[in-house]
Amino acid sequence: MSLVIIGTIAFDAIETPFGKTDKIVGGAATFAGLAAAYLYNPVKLVGVVGEDFGDENLGIFKSRDIQLDGVQIKKGEKSFFWSGKYHNDMNNRDTLATELNVLADFDPVVPESYQDCNYLLLGNLTPQVQATTLSRLRKKPKLVVLDTMNFWMDTAWDDLLQVLKQVDVLTINDAEARQLSGEYSLVKAAEHILKLGPKYLIIKKGEHGALLFGDGQIFSAPALPLADVYDPTGAGDAFAGGFIGYLAKVGTINFNNMRNAVILGSALASFCVEKFGTERLRELTQEDINQRIARFTALSRFDI
Questions:
Q1: Is the pLDDT reported for residue 235 higher than 80?
Q2: In this structure, how many other beta carbons lie within 10 angstroms of the beta carbon of residue 139?
Q3: Which domain holds residue 258?
């Protein structure tokens, strides 16, 4: 059994009130894969990079025993590149450049060695590519988690609705939940979205935590107050990786384990923002993760 993650593997250039970077490694599959690998093995990636990505950057994944049989390397081509500048509140950003490059005609390859997939994370890509990946697995995974964004709601609405019928968990932010449902109340939005196909819904609220809906229940997870937030890029992807990585580790899908998975995802996402790019996610120890989980637990524990 394995955990398969499909998404972008990219270069980012980021500017925040705390500094700026040149090209560094980023992408949805990158952050999700690194986070998941702390909780489960093997993690297997599906994606595409250009020849410019280089062996040194591929070594980031190999150092965490992440398998790359499903990652295509296009000779003579460039990797996907995104550049953005965050506002002072770190919740809003301006996109300065988006260069699709190899992503423009990405056709996912699911190798034979990935057909043991029991847990599948469909990272933020076109709904068509997400659906194609699902169709190329001979057996439907035990759990399918999908991440998407407002751009696909604007440009690929019908395709998105079709792929939502095939997934178990949808993870989006609060603005996207309102857009997808047409409801302002997040409780009403969740009721609407769960009728579209997913059994569970996670609504991410950034510095205000996350909400989990499913099985007729609601769980509210806190966000960890941090003194320094350097770069929020990839935090949502790290959350998704930690979430599915925990569920793959415990092997049983129920609401209680989903609650715990939300906390694990939140913990790994909280590390992600403490440095630029993947730097913080690449240096964690198990003790770091245990201490962070304890801090999350203390935030919301009380007796009446």
A1: yes
A2: 9
A3: 2-300
Residue 228 belongs to domain with CATH number = 3.40.1190.20
Span 246-262, mean pLDDT?
97
Residue with tokens 């579209």: 196
Please give the share of the chain, as a percent, with pLDDT higher than 90.
87
Q: How confident is the model at residue 248, as a pLDDT?
A: 98
DSSP collapsed to 3 states, the chain: CEEEEECCCEEEEEEECCEECCCEEECHHHHHHHHHCCCCCCEEEEEEEEHHHHHHHHHHHHCCCCEEEEEEEECCCCCCEEEEEECCCCCCEEEEEEECHHHHHCCCCCCHHHCCEEEEEECCCCHHHHHHHHHCCCCCCCEEEEECCHHHHHHCHHHHHHHHCCCCEEEEEHHHHHHHHCCCCHHHHHHHHHCCCCCEEEEECHHHCEEEEECCEEEEECCCCCCCCCCCCCHHHHHHHHHHHHHHHHCCCCHHHHHHHHHHHHHHHHHHCCCCCCCCCCCCCHHHHHHHHHHHHHHHCCCC
The answer to whether the CB of 211 falls within 8 A of the CB of 186 is yes
Cross-strand partners of 98? 82
Q: What is the pLDDT of residue 90?
A: 76
The total of structural domains in the chain comes to 1
pTM: 0.96
pLDDT at position 301 is 82
Contact call for residues 248 and 118 (beta carbons, < 8 A):
yes
- Note the pLDDT tens digit of each residue in 282-299: 999 999 999 999 999 898
Count of CB atoms situated within 10 Å of the CB of 154: 9
- Amino acid occupying residue 106: F
Looking from the CA of 194 toward its CB, the CA atoms found within 13 Å total 18
Give me 74's structure tokens.
């296009």
Tell me if 205 sits within 8 A of 177, measured CB to CB.
no
Whether the bond into 127 is cis, omega within 30 of 0: no
Dist CA 223 CA 53 (whole Å): 34
